Amino acid sequence: MSSTPSSLPAVSDRPLDRDLGFGSLAEHAHYRLLNRNGTFNVHRAQSSWFECLFAYHALVNMPWLNFFLLLGAWYAAINAIFALGYLALGAHALAGSFNGPLFWRAFFFSIHTFATVGYGNIVPVTMAANVLVAVQALFGLLSLAVATGLVFARFSRPNARVLYSRKALIAPYRDITSFQFRVVNQRRSQLMHVGAQVIHSRFEPSAGGRVRRFYPLDLERTSVALFPTNWTVVHPITPGSPLHGWTREQLIDAEAEFIVLLNAVEETYAQTVYSRTSYSAREIDWGRKFSMMYFEENGRTRLDLERLDDTHAAPLPGPTALRQPADSAAAGGAQ
Q1: Residue 217 CB: number of other CB atoms within 10 A?
Q2: Top-confidence residue, 4 or 146
Q3: % of the chain with per-residue pLDDT over 90
Q4: With helix as H, strand as E and coil as C, how does 176-190 read?
Q5: Which of 209 and 330 is assigned the larger pLDDT?
Q6: Model confidence at 46, in pLDDT bands (50, 70, 90)?
Q7: Is the predicted pLDDT of residue 77 greater than 90, yes or no?
């Protein structure tokens, strides 16, 4: 059973997970556990920059622009190294017509060999040069195979492209209030059996000062079998809810954070994919509801992703409305 000081609203009896795996980081003040883009607020320091940059998971997960820039840098560097090798064999190791410095002749010959182009205007003459050509040809084939595998792995790796509403809301729900946010599948491929879990984190007073506690929130629906439009994930704020009686100012002072975990089956690959994000107390709008983001058009339903964050004012019912902060008229999003 959780216990809170009399100055704080009481919470219901429920099992608590001390840190969810964050360890002592969970006790750091002014520390966000999960960024909005789903990444952890942890920077890994590795002794080897080569392993950090060229590890398989790093090459598969880095942005496409960074991947191709790194691939281009690797391509240029390898050919430059082999060009220096040809130059080290002497000016007569390569023969052929090329109007330019010897280095560029060796560099472009290296590219011809690496890519198995073989134009024939520059050729190896000495035995040592032919041996180096044989080594580079093998290295080129292996490099091409690795690069092809990485590109294929990046294209074929299933992942979820789920959009979350920019703000979460404290919105009216039936005769009470609720914490809610909205999600939608950005891709045209279908997600099936989508499940959601929301964990509420906040600091609470204890004998030794303040301690961060975690509360799993009961949702109106924990999963949807089909996900053709959007889903507003709703936590009803009942008397048994950890949020019952808490105001916006109290949540901000407690450094409250709402960690969202989603999983689904990606229909194209028939594999489970995951997505996550979090909302801080300052990223919650009070007294708003999400506006509809789909409508009928020519006998079909049109889903407008641009309306993901559209909201309208919705006064909170009952005594909760008295606890609504004066600056809660910001936009957020329910449906």
Answers
A1: 22
A2: 146
A3: 47
A4: EEEEEEEEEECCCCC
A5: 209
A6: low
A7: yes
CB burial of 86-106 (b: ≥16 within 10 Å; e: otherwise) equals bbebeeebbeeeeeeeeeebb
Q: 87 phi and psi, to 5 degrees?
A: -65, -35
The average pLDDT across 93-120 equals: 86
Of 277, 252, 246, residue with least CA distance to 179: 246
Q: Show the tokens assigned to 233.
A: 């994930």
| CA–CA dist 80, 112 (Å, integer) | 13
Angle CA 195–199–204, to nearest 5: 175
What residue type is assigned to position 279 of the chain?
A: Y
Distance spanning both ends of the chain, measured CA to CA: 34
Q: Give exposure, 191-214, as e/b (b: 16+ Cβ within 10 Å).
A: beebebbbbbbbbeeeeeeeebbb
| 115 CB-side CA count, 13 A | 11
Tell me how far apart the alpha carbons of residues 197 and 93 are, in angstroms, rounded to a whole number: 66
Helix H or strand E encompassing 154 = helix 127-156
Task: Retrieve residue 191's tokens.
Answer: 């997600």
Report the predicted TM-score, pTM, of the whole model to 2 decimal places.
Answer: 0.70
Residue partners of 69: CB distance under 8 A and separation at least 6: none
Could you give the domains of the chain? 49-156 (1.10.287.70), 159-323 (2.60.40.1400)
Query: What angle do helix axes 102-114 and 64-88 make, rounded to 10 degrees?
Result: 120
Task: State mean pLDDT over 60-79.
Answer: 91
Q: How are beta strands 284-286 and 168-173 bridged, if at all?
A: parallel
